[in-house]
Every structure is written in C-alpha cells, then in structure tokens.
Amino acid sequence: MPNLRDIKRRIRSVKNTGKITRAMQLVASSKMKRAQNAAIAARPYAQMLAEVLASIHRDEDCADACGINPFIAKREAITRGILILSTDKGLAGPLNSNMFRYIGTELKDEKVRFFAVGRKGSQFLARTARDLAASFSVSDRVPYKEVRPVVESLTQAYLSGEIDTIEVLYPRFINNLRQEVTLEPIAPIPSLDKLLELYKGRPDETAEPPIANDTREMIFEPDVKSILDEIIDLYIRRVVHQMMLEAQASEQSARMVAMKTATDNAKDLESRLTLKYNKARQSAITQELVEISAATMLAQQ
Amino acid sequence: MALLLEIVTPDRRVFCEKVEHVVLPSSTGEIDILPGHIPLLSMLVPGELRYSQDGKTSSMAIDKGFIQVRGDKVSILAEAAIDVSKIDLSAVDDARKAAQDALEEARLKGEDPAIIEELETKARFTVIQSLVKRH
C-alpha cells in the first residue's frame, strides 16, 4: 500500500511546480506580445532596405561596383561562418534542441566557424567541441546597440578571410505554435530576389502595394560606390537585428507554449495523485475498522 | 497621376499615402520629385521634407537615410521621422538638452562608440526637429 505521507508530499511538490510554471507562462505571454509586435513593426524597414539593395544589384551599370564590394562578390566557401541565435534560458520547449539537431545533421561534415548568441548555444558548441569563435548575450528587448558588436565581429572575420560566408541559424517566428529553424545566408549577398520573396511570403497585414514596373535607367547620387558602402553596412546590421527580434518572438512563444503544457500536466498529475491519496486513505480507514471490529469480536468470545 | 510616398523608420512605417509632389533634402541638395521622375537612388540628409496633398503642403522633420524613386513610388528609409504638427518644441528642447548632456558625458567617459552614435542620432534629430518647426 502506498505510503500516505509520501503521496501527500508528492502532491505538494507537483502543486508548487505547477505554480512556478504557471507564473512563467504568464511572464512569457506578456513578453511574447511585445516581442512579436517589435518583430512585426521592424519588418517593413528591413524589407525596404532589401528592396533598395536589390535594385542596385539588378542594375547592370552597377556590376563593376558590385563586383569589387566584398559583401557582394562571390567567393569560394571554405570556412562557413554561422551565427546561432539561441536563448539564454532553458525551458523553451524544443526551440534550442531543434537548432542543435540541425547543426548535428545538416552541418556535420562542413568546416564551420560558429558565433553564438545566447548561453544555450555557446554551451552546446563547447560541449560538442565545435569551433566557437565568439559568444554574445542579448537582452530581452533586443536593443539595436547590442547588435553592433555581434555584427562587427562577423564582418571583421569575413573581411579578414577568417570566414567565407556569413549565415544565421535562428528559429523563424511563424506563429505561436510554430517556429521554424532557418539558415539564412547574409554574405556574400545571395540573390536578393529570393530574399524579397522570403519577406513577401510572410504574413504582414501592413503589406505595401507592389512597385510598378519601371524599366528606365536608375540614377545614383552621389555615386554607386558610396551608396553601396553605406547601404550594405546598414543592411547587414538591420537584417541581423530583425532576425534577433524574430528569434526573441520565437523564444517567448515557445516558452509560453511549453509552460502551458507543463501547467496542464501539473494539474492533471495533481488530480490523479489526489485520487490515489484518497483511495489510500479510505483503504487505511477500512483496514483500521476491520482490525477494531476483529479485536472486539475476539474480546466478546 | 500621383506619387506614392512611403516613409519607414526602424520602428514602424510612418507614412504611406498618395501625394502630388515631394521635396526632399538629398546629399546633393534639395530635390523636388514629381510624378514621372526618373528612377533614382540617393542619400537622404537630415532636414525638412515637404509634400503636398490636395493642394495643402505639410512638412516633416526627417533624419538621414536613403531615397529610392521607382515608377511613381518614393520610398524613404530614414532613421527617424516626425510630422511637424506633432513636434512639441518645449519637449524637444528638453530632449535636446538631455541628449547633448548625455553625449558630452559619454564622450568624456570614453564610452562605447555604439552608445555615442546612438546619442548622436538622438541629439541630431532633436536639433532638426526644432529647426524645422521654427522655420
């Protein structure tokens, strides 16, 4: 027969855990709303920046300027540079482990130098003895200024030839229940039309009207090179920032869902344990009654 | 014929409406864009942006960024933008003072360039706002 006191202790501990997970769920859901809004509000800017860059990229007169720009010129990818946007804290469901599985399967035989954002990512990379170049930490609100050191170390490594690509692995926010592990190339800048498709493919209620087809030659003021230098710098920073915002939205949603499941489980377990406790108590009482009546009968004889 | 003027900043889309023409501060001087303008990509400098809509002219204070004109659509990417009617001069003056003080302090302390640049942007935009408003 299960020990009454043990069951009681268990009920109490499950109850307490349930309280904690419930509190975490509430915190995550309020953070989630803010993170989602931030991610969605920043989309038009990143999208338009990509659009402007795409129009330079498409222009034939700019081929020369593009050819010499290190971020556009194609180069052989010997060492890939990948930035992982993971979380600092755990308890976010399968969010991080999905990314780590991706690294374990898709990037098994590649020569990769990793850059990590978030403690979980750097811990994983250190544990699996991968080439970790740098690790960063970004706070909940993802302020723009915290993006700069990350981007700077990436671009420096890229320009010095330490890495030959800049890619970002992050959980793209789709909706509250779905976050998709995405590996997005940043440099050398891939076909921007593809990138634009990606932005357009996202649900965006503030989607802008399409640009009318204009085939006339584009004028650049003051000149292509200076615009390109400025815009690429801004573009890389903004795109990474946007991805971080999305990763943040994903993290909070994943955590909220995970904590909701945990809270539900705790409630379920608690009611099952209570039932078990009551049954055990009942049978203990019955047992005692039997013993008492047996004893009285024995005394009467 | 009308132009579609779209202004976006890192935090949100500020403006997206049809206008008759728009005057912009570009790096090569002030430019006036009318419908049918040739495709153009230029740098935006901090200053005043004016547009007319139904015969009325409105203006906005705008920070640096990029201008793209393509097929009667003017896209503006700016660090910050605000409608002149929404500028509150006393608040702006306070903000400017605070921003400049913070900047001074950050420079003295030799803060991170990232923080200094952010403060510079803030201080610059407050100056533009008061200039445009007083104009």
- The 3D shape of chain A can be described as elongated
Structural class by secondary-structure content of chain B: alpha+beta
Query: What name does the CATH topology of the largest domain in chain B carry?
Result: ATP Synthase, domain 1
Largest interface: A-B, 33 and 30 residues
CATH architecture of the largest domain in chain A: 3-Layer(aba) Sandwich
Roughly how many Å apart are the termini of chain A?
31 Å
Features:
heterodimer; A: alpha/beta; Pyruvate Kinase, Chain: A, domain 1; 2 domains; five-stranded mixed β-sheet; 6 strands; about 60% helix; B: about 140 residues; alpha+beta; ATP Synthase, domain 1; 2 helices; 10 strands; about 30% helix
Folded structure, characterized:
The complex is a heterodimer of chains A (about 300) and B (about 140). Chain A has about 300 residues and is of the alpha/beta class. Chain A has helices spanning about 5-60, 65-70, 95-105, 120-125, 145-160, 190-200, 225-300, and strands spanning about 80-85, 110-115, 130-135, 165-175, 180-185, 220. Chain A has a 5-stranded mixed β-sheet with strand order 3-2-1-4-5, sandwiched between helices. In chain A, strand 1, helix 3 (about 95-105) and strand 2 (about 110-115) form a beta-alpha-beta unit. In chain A, helix 1 crosses helix 6 and helix 1 runs antiparallel to helix 7 (about 225-300). The two termini of chain A are about 30 Å apart. In chain A, about 35% of the residues are buried. In chain B, a hairpin with a 2-residue loop joins strand 8 and strand 9. By secondary structure, chain B is of the alpha+beta class. Chain B has helices at about 90-110, 115-135; strands spanning about 5-10, 15-20, 20-25, 30-35, 40-45, 45-55, 55-60, 65-70, 75-80, 80-85. Chain B starts with a strand and ends with a helix. Strand 6 (about 220) of chain A pairs parallel with strand 5 (about 40-45) of chain B.
